[in-house]
Amino acid sequence: MELENQIEHELRERAQQLLAENVVDLIIGYGRGTLPNRVTPVFIRKPQDANMLVWNNHCQLNLVSYLQRMQSSSKIGIVVKGCDARSLVGLIKEKQISRDRLHIIGIVCDGILDTRATGEPPIPYASCQHCEVNVPPLYDILIGSPDEIKPKKPSELDAELAAFEALSPAERWKALEQEFSRCIRCYACRNACPLCYCEECFVDQTQPKWISEGTHPSDIMIYHLVRALHSAGRCGECGACERACPMGIKLRLLTQKVSRDVAELFQDKPGIDLERPPALHTFSTDDDNSTFL
Amino acid sequence: MMQPGAEFEPRLIAFLCNWCSYAGADLAGISRFQYPPNIRVIRVPCSGRVDPLFILKSLQHGADGVLVSGCHPGDCHYLTGNYYARRKFIVLKRLLDYVGLEENRVQFSWVSAAEGEKFSRVVADAVEKIKALGPAKRLVKTFSLPPELIQAAHM
Ligand code: SF4
Ligand code: SF4
Ligand code: SF4
Ligand code: FES
């Protein structure tokens, strides 16, 4: 708590300065929510409002998603954690936002607490447990000290994926169908993802109509497979999709699989290097050819 | 509808690129190389045009298998379309295997315009593998209609 307060204090100071000196017109950050342990996005335009900003281990939102709705020419300061910064790097690379319009306020983050886990003490989200970007890969100012990061325990995610892969194909299909049978097709997962910025998502298209409305297991599965594929080589592993899901569906079973394959096949970790094209927007003549007869 | 006792004849959708594999299929025909009649060809400009959705949608609507075929790496009419396709399809293929859609339901190949014989081999091979798997069941969009209704539909 000590450390967080220090970060929060510095954050407010810097934000106030940035607004007072007109470095930015707007700061997108976290503010106090209406429920305990909840934060809400705040959009701050006046220096005197900078003390509305908060920082704590409940700052789970990926604020980068809000940038897409800010297409004016104003200069924006945005508060990002490491994983958020990865999606920001992705958006810049995909020319969705210009780097010049951003003032990135990076925060050294030691993990966000899983609001759905019931045990004591509270544990961080699965996506935080294997986080390798406690320090954001891109920032203009950095708040917090990398030395304060606690050493990570081995992630439960690896074990979870390994256990799933150990099942037979038929069992895997059944397990996934069961997991996704709870999906109500609300698309909160898509809307929360900073990289799902398509003006018209394939699920909403009518010409052609790729999948029907409703919750037929086949349509649900196609939605999730294609969403995972669309995130291939782009997903910054922020976990925002999974946290947004009202049904608590383990979306990481798909997104993490794709992320791991991309890392293994193309030696790429999306959202780290601004110069490197996304893995599926490029190719090498030496790519693995074993899929083809 | 399959007659009881009849051998399972799978339906495969084949997405063939116009410049190589489609021409290869043509050559197979002209040269009278035999291949099983189980494929329904959809001609596409380039293997890079094939969206994973085409494949999933085919399976959803009753294809027992899907074959995607394009020019050999380095020979794409659009120079690089199949290199991009190769990355896309290896990720897709791994994901499909992972979720438990049977291996070989979806297959990929490179067949040039001069490889009529290879084309017939690829198709024969693909059909064989799908026969071994049996009719597609996963991802197929079925509606549970009462049996009387299904029967009535087939009268
Ligand atoms: S797919 Fe999920 S984990 Fe990946 S970037 Fe989008 S919201 Fe984050
Ligand atoms: S799921 Fe695919 S089509 Fe839909 S918004 Fe995301 S990237 Fe776009
Ligand atoms: S947020 Fe959850 S319930 Fe909603 S569409 Fe995504 S997986 Fe389905
Ligand atoms: S034109 Fe044949 S693969 Fe591109």
CATH class categorisation of chain B: Alpha Beta
Distance between the termini of chain B: 11 Å
List unreliable stretches of 5+ residues of chain A. Answer: none
What is the spatial order of strands in the main beta sheet of chain B?
2-1-3-4
> Treating each run of at least 4 consecutive H or I residues as one helix, how many helices of chain B?
5
Order of helices and strands of chain A: HEEEHEHEHHHHHH
CATH topology assignment of chain B: Rossmann fold
Structure explained in plain terms:
The complex is a heterodimer of chains A (293) and B (155). Chain A has nine helices and five strands. Chain A is α/β, with parallel strands linked by helices and 293 residues long. Chain A has two domains: 2-148, no CATH class; 156-280, no CATH class. Chain A has a five-stranded mixed sheet. The mean pLDDT of chain A is 92. Chain B is 41% helix and 15% strand. In chain B, strands 2-1-3-4 form a four-stranded parallel sheet, with helices on both faces. Chain B has one domain: Rossmann fold, CATH 3.40.50. Chain B has helices at residues 21-30, 52-60, 81-99, 116-133, 147-153, and strands spanning 12-17, 39-44, 65-70, 106-110. The mean pLDDT of chain B is 91. Classes of the chains: A alpha/beta (293), B alpha/beta (155). The A-B interface holds A 165, 167-174, 176, 202, 210-211, 216, 218-219, 221-222, 225-226, 228-229, 232-233, 254, 257-258, 261-262, 265-266, 279-280, 283-285, 287-293 and B 52-53, 56-57, 60, 73-74, 80, 83-84, 86-103, 107-110, 122, 125, 138-141. Residues 17, 19-20, 46-48, 70-71, 76-78, 81-82 of chain B line the site of FE2/S2 (inorganic) cluster.
